[in-house]
Each structure stands twice: as C-alpha cells, then as structure tokens.
Amino acid sequence: MRRFDGRWMALLGYAAWALFVNAVNVWLITPMVEDYALFGVIGLFVLILLFVVSIPPQWRRRWIVLTLFSLLLGNGIASLATFPAGAMVGGALLMTCGLMALAWIFARVRLLGMAAAAVAVFLANLWLPMSEWPFLTHFDVVYYGRLRLNPADMTAPPFVVVHTRSGEAVLSLTNVVEHRDELLSTAKTLGQHPNDLNDLLVNYGHRYEFVEIRQTDGRFVEVSPPPEDLAAVDPNGLVRSFFPFTRAGWMLENGKLVQFMDPTVDPRQAVRLTFDTANLPADVLNLAQATRQQEIADWRDVLRQLGVRPLAPTLAIDGGRLVGRIDGTRVNVPVAGTAVVGYGAFTAPGARQVLVEGANVLQVVSLTPAPGRVVATYRSSARMPLPNDIVIGPVDNSGRDAVFVNTSPAFILQVEANGTWRKLYTATSPTMRFEAALKLDHDQYPEIITDDPSLLRDNPIRYFSSYTYRDGQLYRNWRVYHTNVVNVTPVQFTKGGPTYVIAGVYASGKFVVLKRHDLPVVPVTSALLAAVLAAGWVLRWRARGANQG
User: What UniProt keywords are attached to this protein's entry (predicted)?
Assistant: First the structure.
C-alpha cells in the first residue's frame, strides 16, 4: 500500500512540476527578458545557472530534460488552442508522443511521469491556454472565448455594452459559417443583373452575425441577441475598425440579423483621395460624415424590420449641424466637427455633453438647455493632426471626463469649466496607446488602461498596463505581459454586481472577461522558485555529506 501511495505521489510531483515551470516561465522569466532587455537576458542566464547547479548531479539530466519537456509541451498545446477540438487533441497527442520519445532517448525520463505531466499541461490549457496566463497575475479570467473574424474585415472583435433587465450585456460579431454548396445554390437563384453575382462573391466569407455575451445563473454564455437588445446598440461601436473607408450594411437572413461590408469609395477614388494630401483630413472627415449618416439610416431601417425602435442615442452631424434627439430632448447645434466621438461630462460633473471631431478640431457640445450649444473648442495643426482614435473617460475623482488622444505621441486633454483646454500629460513613448479609463471595484482613483512598451527595450511591442494620473504624471499600478490587448471595455453584467473588463486580442478573434484581484501571484511564485532552488542545494549538500561519510 505504501508503495502504491508513493507511486501516486511521484506522479503528482511530475504533474505539479510541469505546471510550476510553465507558471515560472509565463510570470517571471518572460517578463524579465521582455522588460529588462539585456539585463533580463543576463538575469535569465544567472537563474539557469543557479537552477542547473542546484540539482544533485545524479538527477540533473533527467530533471533538466523533464523541465524542457514541460515547457515545450505547454507552449505547443497553447498554440493549438484556436484549432478545432479534434485537431487540437490530435496535435497534442502527436506532440506529446514525439517529446516523450526524445526525453526517453536523451535522459530515460519515466514514461508514466511524463504522461502525468502531459495530462496536467493539457488540462491546464483546456481551462485556459497558457498563452493567456499572463492575465492571471492581476486578474481572474472568468471567461475565455474566440469569435470568428476575418482580419481583412476587422482586426479585433468589437464590443458594445447594452443595458438589459438584469444588468448589462456585451454585443459583438462573429463570422457566418458558409459552405461552397450554399454559395452555388444561392448563385443559381440570382437574377440577371451582373451586380447580383458580384455582390454575392464579394460578401462571401465576409458576413457576420451578432452574438451577445451575458451572465446567466452565474455562468457566462454566448447567445443570439433578442431584438430589444439590438435596439439599444449604437452601430458606430461595431464599425470603428474599418470606418469610414468601408460601410457596414445589415440584412435579415432566416430571422437573424447579418452584417456585411461594402467599400465607400472605389479604388480610383481611394488613390485620388490619398494623394491629395492638402485636403486629406477634410476629405476623410466628409466621407466619414456621409458614411455615418447612411449607416444610421440603414440601421433604423433594419430595426423596423425586426419590429423595434432604436433606443441608443442617435445624434448625427448633417449639413454642419449636430441634430437628433436624446431622451426626448431635441438637439440642433451648428458645429465645426463632422463625426460624433462619444458622450461624457467634460466641463462639470454630471453634465450631459457630446464630443465631436472635425478637421483637426474637437468640440464639446452641451445638450442642455435645448437645443444645445458648443461650450469648448480645441484646434490642432497639420503638424500634429488629430486621429479618429480617441478615448473618453475619467482621469481623477473630479467627476469630469478627459479626452485621451491616440496620436504620436499620445496625450490627455481636459476641459475647464470656462471652456479652456488643458493638456494634462504627453506620453514619453511615441508608441504608447490609451485603451480605456475606468474605475474598477475598490479603486481609490480611476485607472488609465494603456498598451505601452518597455522603458529599456528599443522595441514597439506594447504590454497591457494600468496607470494612475497624479500631479501631471502617470504612475504604474500594474503591468500584464500580454501584447495586443485592445477594445478594453468595462461592463457590469448584473445589477449591483462586480465590474468586469472585457478585452479582445488583436488579429485573433480571442477575447477574455476579466475580474481584478489583488493576489500576490508574482511574489508567491518567486518565493516558491527560491524555495525550490534552496531545496536543491540542501539535497546536494546532504548527498555530498553522505558520500564523504
């Protein structure tokens, strides 16, 4: 019985070691190398030397090979996470058998031990792919999913938060699964007009259906959204990644709402627009205005077909005027802007205001009293043109929203009560990007979520980070060593419940729902690694003492 128990304990030891070395790799080694450049590489060599020397000589080869086996298998299975289930399992089995054979040939590592390690690594990747483990240093990953995207259409899944009876939900898009047989049968039913076949072929593989991410009975699910939730969507949030050179359109297909994309200009017009650099900003914004108006009209039309009326604010700029209705209040204000950026309270806490953008101009429009008025105007220059990548959110506890402008370098603007603009901060790195500004549960001050590079490495790779603004500077709260985290959006899935963060991963369709925690993951992992190294040295000294005795 003792021998049986000892064998099981040994197998559990193999499994635990496989998980531990992968955690050390993700949470300690990779950040050290990526953030500290040459110093990190030197530190890695020192750590490897300490690890190798701490292992008693009689176990050294097997232990090192087992460690390499676990790391290679962990990274390999994580790379298969986006594959279909059958391909993932088959690839994992093939990879495991190959690595086990190599480990047996080079170090005679126990096959049962490697099998236990492989099972542990595989199950850990089923729970959450190890490529997403960097989030665990500061967040609970409460849900992980992947939406089907064509990178030629959109680079990351869009997220639009809508209010429901139970709280909030997130709407996004996923590619419609289409088959060649369906394409052929549809083509046979087309009319004689040549554009019918062209439209069918152009949109084949580029159509998207709506998906709603919500929390039901404590579980996160992906469902088809009901019409009343679609009525609460601002369509601008679904088209920003390709706006304004591609226009979104919508149609009902078998009772489901489907989105497709059409170019707003033909190739010749696009080339002409690009080479007319003197008028490029104004031409692009005029194109954006026309595209936006058409999309709003099309969106209202498809909602009427669903039997619902739009509930989201529907302000638009038409003929140089901001027009529309919000909560029954009529808005009609002459503006210099040509596109609505978003809503906020910019000059005073609780103010109902809109930020609009034009050719190197930003304007804050107050919606009260009706019909509204422009209260602040910011003008830039051709040397520092304003982008269409602008984030709105709090920067302090004043109750006012700031404007985060993602140009190069990025900067933060705030509007005073008298309408004057103040530049609060300019990024020290030309590649830093503001993703969101939000206040999570138990936060004393708002967090500014960014993607920004290492302070030491001369490399544009950017990491998911959080800062607090204080006295003209940004002070880092935390950094997650995960790149390409975009569309960061706060959401409260249940009324009175915790605030979560949903974020996408660029060019992959992957997304995560995160809940902040304060667990000392990195310090505890560092302490365990130090304990393992110390235990190795103790075993080595005891073995040396026994040999001398």
Answer: Membrane, Transmembrane, Transmembrane helix
